[in-house]
Amino acid sequence: MPSPSLVWFRDDLRLTDNPALRAALDRDEPIVALYVLDEESDGVRLIGGAARWWLHGSLASLAERLEERGSTLVLRRGKAAEVVPAVAAEVHAGAVFWNRRYGGVEREIDAGIKEKLRNDGVTVASFAANLLYEPWTVRTQADKPYGVYSPFARAVQKHPAPRPPMPEARKVPGFDGRVDGDDLGAWDLLPTKPDWAGGLRETWEPGEPAAKARLKEFLDEDLGDYSTYRDEFAGGATSNLSPRLRWGELSPYQVWHDTIEHRGSGEHAKSAGGFLSELVWREFAWHVTYHSPDIATVNWRRNFDAFPWPKVNRAHLETWQQGKTGVAVVDAGMRQLWHTGVMHNRVRMVTASFLIKNLLIDWRHGEQWFWDCLVDADAASNPFNWQWVAGSGADAAPYFRVFNPETQRKKFDSHDRYVREWAPEYLGENPPEPMVDLGETRKRALDAYAQVRHGG
């Protein structure tokens, strides 16, 4: 009687460059593919509405691809610490494989499962799959984690090049026994009352095939223009790969090596280098989060705890969320976010700066809104980047940097293409008035920051 391998899929919803799946294939036994929707374990951060929509589509795609190759995706809902050992026992698994996660709570859950399974005599192995460098491998000469990007990036360059990606699994031998699983539709990941996901459906097709197609399209058509046009709000030079990486439809190894192959020379090479630096920034965010797992709720720079946040003005917060601030770029960005589930990266910084520094609203409120609205809401990058703008994070923007939305508009949307698409009323004869005075609120923010800077 064969003892099947159990492959526990998490943020790695792909068949290409999936070390856990490859380990199971190498074992040459039937494979049980499992995904667990864990919304019950203590400390697990529940994913937001837009992310739930994406997860549904990506799981549906993965299930279809596994079926084409001879296997089935088993869906279970509950505490992972209970579900994974239970399924392993049901199928009499001889081995359980997964790719590593780096959040604090997730690491604790995985360690507990690994110990339990090994005590039950099951072979267990986990693999590096979703980061180019494990968070404990890049450290300062004093053997401490990095807190500044530039030296981190230089240190990464001294490490061995990322391994090449593994080939796609063309055949996945299925398990003949009975394994009960949930129906994906019963998980209610898709919004219905109301159905607000029309813009997401217009914009995206979740799943590994679409992810691979987008990577190829970007490298073939857009990479050469990346350095020149990446900051243009309406430009087409951005990769749009962030949700693909967040859900693991692509691995960073695939993106890294495919980019190297397309690097070329001259301006093309410069663009490739700039794009690869964004992958390293993503690594940096995860390395910081690994060592500071409470980054979504606690200031990384603890002296920032003394920042004199006023009582939250709920009306101001909602006006910002709805894209009705009277500031063209801010409103355009917030509307793009709601419609498509993403926002141009520079606009993310502008909208975040406006909330934090012009409205003096705690960065955590903005981070939570983005967490709910972004299809690429990433447990490291989202809070890490919000803290960067706030000045409370690692390698933070200097306290005196307050993005001026009008200056940013003139520089990066000089023909108003972005504003015309998302906030066209600002191009009329009587555009909306800003909800606050940008100059006065900038000064107020600098005064508040000075209190922290000088110790209160």
Overview of this protein structure:
With 456 residues, the protein is mainly α. It has three domains: 5-128, 3-Layer(aba) Sandwich (Rossmann fold); 131-165 and 208-291, Alpha Horseshoe (Serine Threonine Protein Phosphatase 5, Tetratricopeptide repeat); 302-451, DNA Cyclobutane Dipyrimidine Photolyase, subunit A, domain 3 (Orthogonal Bundle). The protein has helices at residues 19-27, 49-68, 80-90, 104-119, 149-158, 198-203, 208-222, 226-229, 242-246, 252-261, 266-291, 314-321, 328-340, 345-358, 363-373, 381-390, 405-412, 417-422, 438-453, and strands at 5-9, 31-37, 73-77, 95-99, 123-127. It has a five-stranded parallel beta sheet with strand order 3-2-1-4-5, with helices on both faces. α15 (363-373) runs antiparallel to α16 (381-390). It is globular. The mean pLDDT is 96. Residues 3-132 form the Photolyase/cryptochrome alpha/beta domain. This is Deoxyribodipyrimidine photo-lyase. FAD binds at residues 226, 238-242, 275, 376-378. Its EC number is 4.1.99.3. It comes from Microbacterium proteolyticum.
Brief overview, please?
By secondary structure, this protein is mainly alpha-helical. It has helices at 19-27, 49-68, 80-90, 104-119, 149-158, 198-203, 208-222, 226-229, 242-246, 252-261, 266-291, 314-321, 328-340, 345-358, 363-373, 381-390, 405-412, 417-422, 438-453, and strands at residues 5-9, 31-37, 73-77, 95-99, 123-127.
